[in-house]
């Protein structure tokens, strides 16, 4: 049988790999930026996301601050942005939406060179320390917080360590226990380390102080700590004692190098900088740790509006609620010019909300699982990305 000239050419081309084949889909590379608060979870979920992505999509995340994330969203720098507070500026694009994506506690971190026992602090005491009216560790207010009888509420958990809820969505209490405080505090100056950059963590922290101890922290919340500080931060008494550093990494590192200092940041910054984590006395009078269980108990009392923004109930009497739990929002667009990127951003948001990220990765890093009605609302927001 004769072989046609065309067939011969084709055969030669195949032999030398000259026939073009349809390349495998390389996937889309997505970039995000903004808040440092959720950065550890977003980074931790990067590899498992890439593994499960059927489209071979990948992402990168530049951790800085909520202010940077909001600014980048205005300029369309990157594809998604993270903010620990609702973005309400007039410059915000109408097509930008908020997705409650990451839940975690803000921890009060402190540097005590010796004692291993955790401090317990009330809202008024925390406000006094960060507001500059409580300046030594043996102040009567700190002594009183740590030398009284308090209660700890223990919730029933599932195998993954998440709190169980009954049919009505209420957390199931396993037991309570009484703690008799006995803490000798050092006669040492307190050095306060605050976030100097525009920060959603600061906005949430100062909102907690104002809503929970308004007579002490008299100014409203602000992303800039100096602007929320209730007194004169530049007074002679505060110079060298109330100091700033940029980002959660910066404040934690500075506090780690400064004996008898205190700051606020994510829980996962404590170990790396040899900082201790304070427990908080909540409105129910219970002592609670900044963990996923206490955060979930607190966020369960929050309300959400049509924009996806949450309003926290700092006066909740839920016994095990940790009142410094917050949500970090993904800012995403409902009108991406590149619909392939829109699909990838939607896929990233869906994965971060899933148990494969929020539970399997997040639990080890101190993050909480978004579940129940809040998860459904978050997923409804994700569906709007396009």
TrEMBL record:
Gene Ontology terms for molecular function: phosphate ion binding
Annotated Gene Ontology cellular component terms: ATP-binding cassette (ABC) transporter complex
GO biological process: phosphate ion transmembrane transport
The keyword Transport belongs to this UniProt entry's keyword annotation: yes
Record family assignment: Belongs to the PstS family.
InterPro entries: ABC_phos-bd_PstS (IPR005673), PBP_domain (IPR024370), Phosphate-bind_PstS (IPR050962)
The protein, known as: Unannotated protein
Keywords carried by this UniProt record: Phosphate transport, Transport
Domain PBP, chain residue ranges per copy: 23-354
UniProt keyword annotation of Cell inner membrane present: no
